[in-house]
TrEMBL record:
Organism: Streptomyces litchfieldiae
Lineage summary: Bacteria, Bacillati, Actinomycetota, Actinomycetes, Kitasatosporales
Protein's name in the database: Small integral membrane protein
Annotated transmembrane regions: 12-39
Domain of life, per lineage: Bacteria
Keyword terms, alphabetized: Membrane, Transmembrane, Transmembrane helix
């Protein structure tokens, strides 16, 4: 399934949630969709848990 079709389905789901459930339902569907997307990326192996929790390397030369 192409990303355009997935985007269209997501947009339709958000539209229905907003129309029938109001703004709160819109936010709930958007949050659950984002969580599902991230979990799907983990399942596919495209994303590692460490990507969210890595500490940035500091360049100590900037302080001098």
């Amino acid at each position: 399934m192409s990303m355009a079709v997935v985007g269209m389905i997501a947009g339709m789901a958000l539209g229905f949630a907003t129309y029938f459930g109001g703004f709160g339902a819109f936010l709930l569907v958007a949050a659950l969709g984002t969580i599902g997307f991230v979990v799907g990326r983990f399942a596919d192996g495209d994303l590692d848990p460490g990507d969210f929790f890595r500490v940035r390397e500091r360049d100590d030369d900037r302080r001098r």
